[in-house]
Amino acid sequence: MQIEGLKERLIFLKKNHEEVTCSLEDTSGWTSYRSLEVKPAVDLGAIMEEMRDQYERDAEKTEKNWKPGSHKKQRELDKQVIWIRKSCVTSKSEISDLRRKLQALQIELQSQLSLKASLEEL
């Protein structure tokens, strides 16, 4: 009973909608389009799977191209980099010390030149 009433209500609403749409088309020149162009959905899962496969192929290729002695060479290079960094830090400290000594010597030189000038005036 209730279902039949709802079906009748649905039929009435569809008919009413159709009449309103037709009257709008007649009075305003407005046209309703009921069909929509639906583009095919993009399968993101497939795209992600393809990207994952490509990444794994690249990783395997890199692993195969990695020479057996490369790990040893890499460790040696890492040691060299560490040594160079330590040397840079030490050199920067030495440069700072030398700059301080230079400033002290310049001040002492100015002092001695001032003393010489004052002694020559006597």
From TrEMBL:
Q: Any idea where the IF rod domain is?
A: 1-122
Q: Which residues form a coiled coil?
A: 45-122
**Cross-referenced PROSITE patterns:** IF_ROD_2
Task: Say yes or no: keyword Coiled coil present.
Answer: yes
Keyword tRNA-binding carried by entry: no
A GO cellular component entry from the record: intermediate filament
**Pfam families assigned to the protein according to its UniProt record, in alphabetical order:** Filament
Q: Which InterPro entries match?
A: IF_rod_dom (IPR039008), Keratin_I (IPR002957)
UniProt-recorded name of the protein: IF rod domain-containing protein
> Which organism is the protein's source?
Mugilogobius chulae (yellowstripe goby)
